[in-house]
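Supplementary notes for students who missed Thursday's class. We covered one full example, reproduced here. Read the sequence, then the structure, then the short commentary at the end.
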Amino acid sequence: MLRTGQRRRLAEAVRVRLEQLEAGGAQFLILCCFTAHAVVPFLPSRLQERLVRLPDVALGLVAKRRESTLVLCTEGARLARLFESSPLWSDVACHVEFPDAMLQEHVHDLIYQLKTGLSPERGLNRLETVLGTGSAGALLCGCTEFHLLSRARRTSTDLSSPAWIDPLEYLALAIRDGRLADTVSGLGSVHTPGRLPGY
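Structure (token representation):
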């Protein structure tokens, strides 16, 4: 839908779902899809103000590590410049790398293979094959499908591969431990990571 210019149509569908969560008493709203953040500017301001934005959380975690990080995301996320649009971008841009065109095509294809049933273990093997021995110190899960690979990676015994930065795992742990509020700068503004404790 992003490629066909139907962001407003997608934004309407997202708005309906977020308002259902709001009506149910949700204090914070999280879009569990990076690419869907392309429609955030089209949402009502009250919903925007309550969003914990995955691109901001992701870059906050990159800022904490401060090492070369390769972003694994959809072509839609690249097209929408989701990471470059974050208020944290200027602080971490020097640490962020994006795949070249050929690798990006492999990454995008892998995302859709995972969506259609490829096991995380096989997905991880395929990703490691196409990445080879790159220079990045960390891999950023810039698509929520890669959260599945991040979990599979934790059971691997290969300690030579790069570290994984997984914003969904971080938020899940924060919610579990009752410290989600510590990760945001406050209601009424764009939610960017605060202290990022314990990750």
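Commentary. Confidence is low (pLDDT under 50) at residues 185-199. The radius of gyration is 17 Å. If anything here is unclear, bring it to office hours.
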